[in-house]
UniProtKB/TrEMBL annotation:
Residues annotated as signal peptide: 1-22
Transmembrane regions listed in the UniProt entry: none
Keyword Transcription in record: no
A single MF term (Gene Ontology): copper ion binding
Keyword line: Copper, Metal-binding, Signal
Record organism: Ktedonobacter racemifer DSM 44963
Name of the protein: Blue copper protein
The Blue (type 1) copper domain, residue ranges: 34-126
UniProt cross-references to PROSITE patterns, sorted A to Z: PROKAR_LIPOPROTEIN
InterPro entries xref list: BlueCu_1, Cupredoxin
Length: 126
């Protein structure tokens, strides 16, 4: 009987572990200032934050992205960091999330995915 209880306890802890892993990305989505990445776009494409805050980027797809300072203009990549922009150069491998910033200066800042033409994000800091 003791053995049976031990086995049941083992199985229930495994189940709890799996549930915790499955909700990992959902927890990440609940953070403030969250922007999602799909295959080729940010949603939303623009976010407004307060000075000193970070942007939480959640990659919803099993695809890698490289996010950096700059923008796509007519399908041409234009690297560039505005004065006061947070330095951004982050690699995502798929179904992952990372925070960028903090952005400590007010202004409008362009970020882009260097991999996917047209994949732009505007961060407006108030
Ligand atoms: Cu991308």
């Amino acid at each position: 009987m003791k053995k049976l209880i031990a086995i049941l306890l083992l199985f229930s802890s495994i189940a709890i572990l799996f549930t915790a892993c499955a909700t990992g990305n959902a927890d990440a989505s609940n953070k403030p200032n969250t922007v999602h990445m799909k295959e080729l776009v940010f949603t939303p494409t623009s976010i407004t934050i307060e000075k000193g805050e970070k942007v939480n980027i959640v990659n919803d797809v099993p695809i890698g992205h490289i996010i950096a300072n700059g923008t796509w203009q007519n399908n041409a990549p234009k690297a560039g960091k505005e004065p006061g922009a947070a330095q951004v150069n982050i690699q995502f491998t798929g179904n992952d999330n990372q925070e960028i910033g903090p952005f400590s200066t007010a202004g409008t800042f362009q970020l882009y995915c260097t991999v996917h033409p047209g994949m732009n994000l505007t961060v407006i800091v108030k």
